[in-house]
Amino acid sequence: MQVILAQPRGFCAGVVRAIEIVERALDKYDHPIYVRHEIVHNRHVVDSLKAKGARFVEDLSEIPPNAVTIFSAHGVSRTVEEEAAARHIPVLDATCPLVTKVHNQGKRYIAQGRTLILIGHAGHPEVEGTMGQVSGPVFLVQNEKDVETLDIPTDAPVAYVTQTTLSVDDTRGIIAALRRRFTDIVGPETRDICYATQNRQTAVRELSKLVDVILVVGANNSSNSNRLREIGAEAGVPSYLIADGSELKAEWVRGARTVGLTAGASAPEVLVEDVIAALRRLGPVEVSTLPGRQETIEFRLPAELAQDRSSGAPPVAALVEGHDEGLETE
Ligand code: SF4
Question: What percentage of the chain's residues is helix, strand, coil (to nearest 5)?
Fold first, then answer.
């Protein structure tokens, strides 16, 4: 069996940064360190951080005062930020800088007097965070049908922003429908869309031209992993989301000569290797990697954690004041 790995796949810069924030915080501050929501949507990642002393909670009410707390890569609403400040919870913010960028775009559009439309999935923590970051009503649209039912006058000044785990290709139809419906509409440049989402989707499209089956390593609550599976299926290739090698079903790959393997942005490479090992248990496997884009993007850590680990922890109070998160780009 030929196994072809997509390139790029797996961890993006936002996920690497979020995990590093937890690890460095565990190193520097008294345990336990609290994390609001799964730091990234992957059980393997969460379990390994739990084993190192991180405690994951869904609500700030579960966190004692003064316990260092990390907000997940998906971002939070202003209400959550305000509640943390009111309870004097020292916060490290692992919100991906690209998510923060969407928050800032939304705020700018509202400040310009525009009604904001968010393209995204209802109930996803990133969507809840973005809707709760801007003052003023935000209209959520999940598909082209939703555009028709928006209760906004067609000549009202409107603007749109998008959830980061949707690619240019995902949003194209919805944006076109919005532009048909509204006469005064603005939105961000397409180059502002998350590079990692776009690159992983482009790679899985390439993969789908070459393989009989696609396996996407990722959690079932990972939006971008689900989307990768859908793209494979839309291309007509049987595609399965798989958390790790233990979930591999022999019938998925029975008769397949070529299996494509990719991973969502929150899935570590060790799980890709675990799936390859599971495939090897079914028979001989030859692994190759599709040529693809090399990613060199890195995001800066919060200033409190960027210093040399040996230089000691800053006072916990320093964490409460927040920080500036710069972007390092290719
Ligand atoms: S997928 Fe994109 S937006 Fe989401 S964490 Fe990764 S880099 Fe950030």
Answer: 40, 20, 40
Query: pLDDT at position 191, please?
Result: 61
How many other C-beta atoms are found inside a 10 Å radius of the C-beta of residue 131?
Answer: 18
pLDDT tens digit sequence for 59-82: 999 999 889 999 999 999 999 999
Establish whether residue 49 lines the binding site of ligand 1, counting it when its CB lies within 6 angstroms of any ligand atom.
Answer: no
Walk across the sheet containing 157-162 and list its strands.
138-141, 115-119, 157-162, 184-186
Nearest-CA neighbor of 283 among 313, 259, 312?
259
Query: Helix, strand or coil for residue 116?
Result: strand
- Verify whether residue 126 is a known catalytic residue: yes
**If DSSP states are collapsed to H, E and C, what string results for 144-180?**
HHHHHCCCCCCCCEEEEEECCCCCHHHHHHHHHHHHH
If residue 13 lies in a helix (H) or strand (E), which one and from where to where? helix 13-28
194 CB within 6 A, ligand 1: yes
Residue 105, C-beta contacts closer than 8 angstroms, at least 6 positions apart? 161, 188, 192
- State the catalytic residue, choosing from 38, 81, 126, 325: 126
Distance 12 CA to ligand 1 centre (A): 6
Nearest CA to ligand 1 atom 7: 14
Residue 192: predicted pLDDT: 62
Q: Which ranges of 193-287 would DSSP assign to H, the alpha helix?
A: 195-208, 223-234, 250-253, 269-280
Q: What per-residue confidence (pLDDT) applies to 329?
A: 35
Determine if ligand 1 sits within 6 Å of the CB of residue 13.
yes
pLDDT single digits (tens) 161-172: 999 988 787 899
Amino acid at 324: D
Q: For the whole model, what pTM was predicted? A: 0.90
- CB within 8 Å of 310: residues ≥ 6 apart: none
**Residues of the chain below pLDDT 50:** 308, 310-330
